[in-house]
C-alpha cells in the first residue's frame, strides 16, 4: 500500500534514482522539453520545480544548493541566466506534462514534460495579462468617487443635449 509515500521508487535504488532525476533535470534545462514516461515525468516535475524556484534569487547559496542536485556547471548557469529571468513573475507551475499515448515496444504511457514559458507555439496567441490585485473596484480621482462621477455624467448629458 502507498500510505503517504512521497516519491516514486521507479524500480531503482536510491542512488540510481537520484542520478537519473539529476540527468533528466539537466536535459530538461538544456533542451526545454523531453519525452519520457508519465511516472518519470511526474517524479521529475517534483524534482525540478523547487530548483527553478531557488534560481529566481541569484545568490551564491542558491547556486550551491542547485549545483548539489544537478551536478552540472553548464546546467546551473543555464538555469540561472536563461530560465530564471523568464519565470521571474510566475508564482509556480514552471513545468507542463502533456500525455502522448503509449510506447510501441512495451505499451508504457508516454509524456512530454516541458518548461512552460519556453513553448512559443502554445503561448503565442495569449496576451500577457496584468497582475491581479486582491481588492477590486475602479480607481477614482479625488473626493468621494461615486458622487463626483454621477455629477460628471449629468453634466456630460446636458452638454451633449445642447449640441444637438
Shape: globular
Low-confidence stretches: none
Q: Could you say which structural class the secondary elements and strand pairing correspond to?
A: alpha+beta
Radius of gyration: 25 Å
Q: What is the overall pLDDT average?
A: 86
CATH topology of the domain at 17-123: 50s Ribosomal Protein L17, Chain: A
Helices, strands, pairings?
Elements: H1 14-31, E1 33-37, H2 38-55, H3 60-70, H4 73-86, E2 95-102, E3 109-115, H5 120-123, H6 145-163
Explain what this protein looks like in three dimensions.
The chain is of the alpha+beta class. The protein has a domain at 17-123: 50s Ribosomal Protein L17, Chain: A (Alpha-Beta Complex), CATH 3.90.1030. It has 6 helices and 3 strands; from the N terminus they run αβαααββαα. It has helices at 14-31, 38-55, 60-70, 73-86, 120-123, 145-163; strands at 33-37, 95-102, 109-115. A 3-stranded antiparallel beta sheet has the order 1-3-2. A hairpin with a 6-residue loop joins strand 2 (95-102) and strand 3. The radius of gyration is 25 Å and the shape is globular.
